[in-house]
Amino acid sequence: MILQCRNTNSNTGTQETHRKRSVQQRPLRLAVIGCGRRIVFVAVSSVNPLPKQVKIVEVGPRDGLQNEKLTVPTEVKLQFIDMLSETGLPVIEATSFVSPKWIPQMADQAEVTQGIRKRPGVVYPVLAPNLKGFQAAVKAGADEVAIFSTVSELFAMKNANCSVEESLQRAEEVTRAAKAAGVRVRGYVSCVLGCPYEGHVSPDKVAQMAKHIYAMGCYEISLGDTIGVGTPGSMRAMLDAVSKEVPVDRLAVHCHDTYGQALANILVALQMGVSVVDSSVAGLGGCPYAPGASGNVATEDLVYMLHGLGIHTGVDLQKVMDAGAFICRFLNRRTSSKVAQASCRL
Amino acid sequence: MGNVPAALKHCLSYEQLTRDYPWLAAWLQREKVRGAFIFPADSRNAITDLPKFVKIVEVGPRDGLQNEKEIVPTDVKIQFIDLLSKTGLPAIEATSFVSSKWVPQMADHTDVLQGIHRAPQVKYPVLTPNLRGFRTAIAAGATEVAVFGSASETFSRKNINCSIEESMQRFEEVVRAAKELQIPVRGYVSCVLGCPYEGDIEPSKVTKVVKTLYGMGCYEISLGDTIGVGTPGSMARLLDSVKKEVPMSTLAVHCHDTYGQALANILVALQMGVSVVDSSVAGLGGCPYAKGASGNVSTEDVLYMLHGLGVETGVDLSKVMEAGDFICKALNRKTNSKVAQAKCRL
């Protein structure tokens, strides 16, 4: 005898999220099986099935290059982004409209935004840390921007020279202006699994921050393990908290590989329903908080894993490796991607 | 949780449930569930529903050093193993009784085995590819041995100069002799997720070899992704096949990180019930099939993940890093462990 009872998923109960819910978000079905005197529960919809499709957000030209010591000339950046545009990557973060005083690498932000050959169907978001940056971005032709937030006061002070509250006010100005201009805004939360100054970060704090910037109007929230200290355990706990406040199909993960945990963390995120992953070709961009250590997870290694899992990305791995080889040759550095290292038989 | 009282919940393992209710596996298959999990309340537990304890088998002194170009002097090997003996690692593969003609690095096998300070509670298995090697190992004081098989016919011929069947006959002799002396034998199967010569390997081929080794009397079978091409998808498919023939508790995974997939593959293996993981301190041992690429997964990175997941190992990560630091200095090379790279702030 089998009875079936439906149990609503603890995530959210809204109609909208129900509609867009992926396989692993459907309500947990519990079958009660009776045989003789024994009655057992069998859960028949587990969270383990993975998304059929994952959107990869390529951050190499911005987050990657921003952390490279060598300043890359504008024409090389343009060639690099144009190569990435041919790979099938649906989103390529092109540059950052921060003051060149802080980030000299991004001084040519307007020329890069104006110079790239935008491929139809590909989105090219740019960072806009404040209203001034947003206005400059829109003037340069940007049609999508990203704002940055953090739950760590010390990190906000050291990174953006303001408090968390001030950074949120700046973000609010940007999202308001973006709404008025019909420009989409992506939100980042950094230090979600640990802070280089404050150490442990509470999942509830991250959840509240994600909720706040989602309510501001960000269409997607990218949760960044900025110093790569997270493990599948802390990733799970954090996503458990955040997904109660923001629909999981609006979440992305941005994992750093500083402690080698990125792909395992991404796998758990996928198992929990996340289907957007940020990565950087060739694993560009070290970790400024641990000199010599690696930073962003490599797009090649991520694509290799996703394709091995039968997940569709639309990305051509070989073309990504070509773009990686190009930028590494220019930067005169070895790729951080293990797939590229293995494939090149260096 | 619906309207079924908690008192009726009964938590069983999947294997036991499908034994008790043979129709259940087919029913679950019809419900399109890949690997249903049985758990009482929170479905999300399945993601990190992991073994409480994972045994780490340290293969650095054998598998690691065997693939390093520089020949390490005997006293350095002994000091290295003695450092590892203080870390809490329960099993340290000390050396290999192969012909020094084939593996010059292991020429000092007897001196190493006799020279190390054996910590109580720590096992020091040694490789014995044939009866002759076994006898030499016993004469040198070995108390546990290991035999190496392959799931790929071509790899078997190229690596140990005989067919899979011939290799099984040799191992049978070793196991028989070992049984008489009550020496436990560990079995290895290489190329379980891909072969450098044959490409994809059918899980059924691996299962056949595993079943043979288990039937012979090996107490544990380590499944080796020899060229690191596996992904969590192929790992899950492999384990799905193998677990039908041998208990999960007898399986270990030996993942190479050549394509950066090792930790994700290990995580999936743990989620499926494997609780023994092979690794190599500092990620020693490159991949002879992809020059310049990495090989063994680093013990430090595995420990970081397991401890972050709340899994006990009994191993002190900082002492492992010291041992890694020692051997990298002796080899004049950089560690492959990302955890070590991040913590050293090189």
TrEMBL record, chain A:
<comment type="similarity">
    <text>Belongs to the HMG-CoA lyase family.</text>
</comment>
<dbReference type="GO" id="GO:0004419">
    <property type="term" value="F:hydroxymethylglutaryl-CoA lyase activity"/>
</dbReference>
<dbReference type="Pfam" id="PF00682">
    <property type="entry name" value="HMGL-like"/>
</dbReference>
<dbReference type="GO" id="GO:0046872">
    <property type="term" value="F:metal ion binding"/>
</dbReference>
<dbReference type="GO" id="GO:0046951">
    <property type="term" value="P:ketone body biosynthetic process"/>
</dbReference>
<feature type="compositionally biased region" description="Polar residues">
    <location>
        <begin position="1"/>
        <end position="15"/>
    </location>
</feature>
<keyword id="KW-0479">Metal-binding</keyword>
<dbReference type="InterPro" id="IPR013785">
    <property type="entry name" value="Aldolase_TIM"/>
</dbReference>
<protein>
    <recommendedName>
        <fullName>hydroxymethylglutaryl-CoA lyase</fullName>
        <ecNumber>4.1.3.4</ecNumber>
    </recommendedName>
</protein>
<feature type="region of interest" description="Disordered">
    <location>
        <begin position="1"/>
        <end position="22"/>
    </location>
</feature>
<feature type="domain" description="Pyruvate carboxyltransferase">
    <location>
        <begin position="54"/>
        <end position="321"/>
    </location>
</feature>
<dbReference type="InterPro" id="IPR043594">
    <property type="entry name" value="HMGL"/>
</dbReference>
<comment type="pathway">
    <text>Metabolic intermediate metabolism; (S)-3-hydroxy-3-methylglutaryl-CoA degradation; acetoacetate from (S)-3-hydroxy-3-methylglutaryl-CoA: step 1/1.</text>
</comment>
<dbReference type="GO" id="GO:0006552">
    <property type="term" value="P:L-leucine catabolic process"/>
</dbReference>
<dbReference type="InterPro" id="IPR000138">
    <property type="entry name" value="HMG_CoA_lyase_AS"/>
</dbReference>
<keyword id="KW-0456">Lyase</keyword>
<dbReference type="InterPro" id="IPR000891">
    <property type="entry name" value="PYR_CT"/>
</dbReference>
